[in-house]
Amino acid sequence: MNGPRNSRAAFRAPALLFVLALLTLFALWLESLPVQGDWARAGYLNYSAGLTLLFAFALSRLIKPLGLPYITGYLFAGMLAGPYVMQILEPDLVRRLHIVDDLALGIIGLAAGASISWKEMRRLGRSVMLTSILQIGFIFLLLFSFTFFLSFLFSSFAGLSPKEHLALCLVISLLCSAQSPSSAIAVIDECNASGSFTDTVLGVTVMVDIIVICLFPLILSAAHGISAPTGARNGPDFFILLPELGFSLLLGALAGIMLNALMRKTKTDFALFILCFAFGVYKTSDWLGGWSEEQFGILMHPDPLLICMSAGFTVRNLEKTSTVFHDAVHRFSLPVYLLFFSLAGASLRLDALALMWPMAGILCLLRATGLFMGGTMAGMLSNTSKEIRRISFLAHLSKAGVSIGLAQLAARSLPAVGTLITTLVLAVIAVNQVIGPVALKWVLNRAGETEGREET
What is the spatial distance between Cα 244 and Cα 249, in angstroms, rounded to a whole number? Predict the structure, then answer.
């Protein structure tokens, strides 16, 4: 049974290496061309994006025999093609291509929501909530203790006042607790994983981010109050995050009900409609933000990812159309993950990692320790098997998305430490986003929930 598969893999490896070599040579030639005028820039953008995607696809298939998930290849290809290595994708091009994120995150959100069963969540709810709370608590405690008491060892903290230092410690400790639902759902979908452990991993990943979003206004308000000069006005935009969270979940539930009704009454191919829906959610969210600020002076910007997750969850648990919906979303998984994670790799701040790697490395180790302590204690309280307790923390190493957005908001609100916050968060993301998907795939295999996936 393994003979033909092994021979096919052996045949594909030299072919893929040849393709990668050709793509590299073409990239070097493309970089040497002069780019002048709008038409030339548009063509260069298309060629650069297409070349990066081909490179990512070939690299991901080349490393597949090593047991690495596809998104690791996508991330590495993006890093190589990005502004800090081969410079195929320059910073301006990466920013212009981030319109793809709107579409990709919408599809990923729908897929994540559609993977969560309410019946399973009721059964696993105690375990999911315990794990989420304990992981956040231990990570916050460990990182705050280190950054507050031992950060004098690093020159980056030397110029901060005691109040600025305390504000930085609070924000960094919370932001490093967040995880990455997009990475988790991509690996779970690739492995075709299913089972109680998989449901728990996905539930914890989503719940942790929701809790972090809820805690962020409180932590940021405290940090702003500590570090702001006496009499400074505390911005009200922090406290709009909690209503935004509830509003986003409600909009998603209503959208899911409408999607369910539409799918029951029509027999057309729903894949293209799902694609338009995912993109439309992001554009509608932007419009609502601008409209609320213009009409009421309050920036009420619903979270598009939460809307899509809530919509996917609603459709999945209305049962009658869940299979049709899952198939429609799954059809876009390859191009969506390829686009999103290649650009994510190109966007990783390798310069930030080079600048802050000692501090980032220690924060990553402490974060992993907090995940292990929280997961182990939650497993003991939930009577989880010893083997799962010992390795489950590896499923939660990935982080991105929410951390980046909240770090940018914190940087605007705390200008004195804003640059340090974003640099540290991006450095920690760069490390964990490379290691996390590999660790998650290994854990899912070890838990025995990835059987039945045919090689494609």
Answer: 9
